[in-house]
Amino acid sequence: MGVGVLEDSRVGRRVRDLRRRLGLTQKELAERCGLSPVYVQFIESGKRHPSLKALSRIAEALGVELDDLFVDEDMSRVEVTEIFSPHSPLRLWYRGRKLSPRQKEVLRELIERTLEEWRDDEGR
Questions:
Q1: 92 touches 86 (CB < 8 A)
Q2: Angle 75-2-97 (CA atoms, 0-180°, nearest 5)?
Q3: If I label 8, which of 48, 68, 94, 105 is the partner at 20 to 30 A Cα–Cα?
Q4: How far is CA 87 from CA 12, 109, 124, in A?
Q5: What is each CA distance from 74 to 10, 12, 70, 101, 102, in whole angstroms?
Q6: Distance between CA atoms of residues 120 and 83, nearest Å
């Protein structure tokens, strides 16, 4: 993982929803994952871009897989074309840094080439 495909506010809402299902307060979740309650609050409100390490700790504390934080009931998948659209509200991050338009284009090309190779391999 390392590439976040959801807006920070959606990831935050997902964390909040999972936390509430377990009946935990923000403080209790923070204690379980070794983060400050304020940081958890900022993540849930979309005011902070959580690191992969923080998200891993949160997922573990919530008893879910890391990728479960990126999928909610309203969105079971994201089309690659939506991620790379210049009009998309989604922001792409890698290792805590927002990707530039050029970096997004390089990544899109890499994904397309990889998928083409996979299709070619399946046809053999």
A1: no
A2: 105
A3: 105
A4: 22, 18, 37
A5: 10, 14, 11, 27, 30
A6: 24
- pTM beyond cutoff 0.85: no
Say if CB 58 and CB 35 are below 8 A apart: yes
What the block records as the tokens of 45 is: 């409100």
Q: How many residues does the chain have?
A: 124
Q: Which domains can be identified in the chain, with CATH numbers? A: 3-70 (1.10.260.40), 80-123 (no CATH)
Residue in 61, 71, 62 with CA at minimum distance from that of residue 1: 71
Query: What are the tens digits of pLDDT across the range 85-109?
Result: 766 666 677 666 777 888 888 888 8
| pLDDT tens sequence across 26-45 | 999 999 999 999 999 999 99
| DSSP state for residue 67 in the 8-state scheme | G
d(CA 69, CA 55): 8
Residue in this structure with the two tokens 């923000």, named with its chain if needed: 26
